[in-house]
Amino acid sequence: MEIPKNFKDEIWDYCRLNDITNIDDFTFKCLQRGFTVHKFGSTPAPTKEKIVEKIVEVEKIVEKEVFVSDKKSDKKLTDKIEKLQNETLDLKEKIKELEKQLQEEKNKKKIDLYGE
Question: How many of the other CB atoms lie within 10 Å of CB of 106?
C-alpha cells in the first residue's frame, strides 16, 4: 500500500517535532487506531449501570440562644437603671447651675472692664 506524499510528509514532520524515531511503527499504530475507531465507533457503547438511590439520614444540630429572665435580677436591673437616670438628671441640673454661674462671672468681668 502506498501513502500519498503530502500525508507522508505530514507524518514525518510530526515525528521529527515530537522526537519519534521509529516512524514505521508510529504509522502502523495510527492506522490500527483509526481502523478500530472506524470499526467500533468513536466512543464505546455506554454500559447500563444500575442506579441505586440511597436515603441517608443526617443529624442537624441547631444552636439557639435563649434569654432566661429572673424576676429578682430584672428588679435589680430596673432599680439600677432608675438610679442611673436620677443621677443623670442631677448631673444635668448641676451642669446648668455651673453654666449659669460661669455666665454671671463673665458678665461681672465685662462690667468691671468697662468701668460700669
Answer: 10
Q: For the whole model, what pTM was predicted?
A: 0.36
80 C-beta neighbours (distance < 10 Å), count: 10
24-62 b/e (C-beta count within 10 Å ≥ 16 → b): eeebeeeeeeeeeeeeeeeeeeeeeeeeeeeeeeeeeee
Strand (E) or helix (H) holding 31: helix 23-40
One-letter amino acid identity for 81? Answer: I
Q: Terminal CA-to-CA distance of the chain, rounded, Å?
A: 133
CA quadruple 87, 90, 96, 100: dihedral sign: negative
Q: What is the pLDDT along the chain (116 residues), one digit of tens a residue?
A: 788 899 889 999 999 999 999 999 999 999 898 888 888 877 756 667 777 788 888 888 888 887 776 677 778 888 899 999 999 999 999 999 999 998 888 877 766 555 55
